[in-house]
Amino acid sequence: MPACRNEHWFLLVGVASKKTWILHDSLPNPKRKDMARDSITVFQKATEKRTNYNFKEWSLILAKNIPGQINSYDCGVYVMKYMEHILKPGVLVWNSCHDWAEKMPLFRAEIAYEIFRTFHVDDDV
């Protein structure tokens, strides 16, 4: 679940089999766990009629050895890349991803290209 608090994006991944949330944060901050808990509470309220899980009771851990940002503005791109990497089939390994900061201009360009390539505007706009 992507979440944004105080102008910073982070990713929460729920692992139902372990009743655990994994917090993926490209710019770690001790206060982020509290922000993540707030996001989980919002998620709980939004889904309470659709599931029997009590997401607020799940443990919350920080993802380890994930790529981190070196500026104050790429957190959203990191969240997108985390999701892309997590959703790839196969074993989840972060070791090959620690050059993301160098590749951010390329990642931003790829995202812009995909939006440009797939976005269609009605004639009325």
UniProtKB/TrEMBL annotation:
GO terms for molecular function: cysteine-type peptidase activity. Keywords: Hydrolase, Protease, Thiol protease. One of its GO terms (biological process) is proteolysis. Coiled coil: none annotated. Residues 1-86 form the Ubiquitin-like protease family profile domain. PROSITE patterns: ULP_PROTEASE. InterPro entries: Papain-like_cys_pep_sf, Peptidase_C48_C. PANTHER family: GH15225P-RELATED, SENTRIN/SUMO-SPECIFIC PROTEASE. Belongs to the peptidase C48 family. This is Ubiquitin-like-specific protease ESD4. It comes from Platanthera zijinensis. The lineage of its organism: Eukaryota, Viridiplantae, Streptophyta, Embryophyta, Tracheophyta.
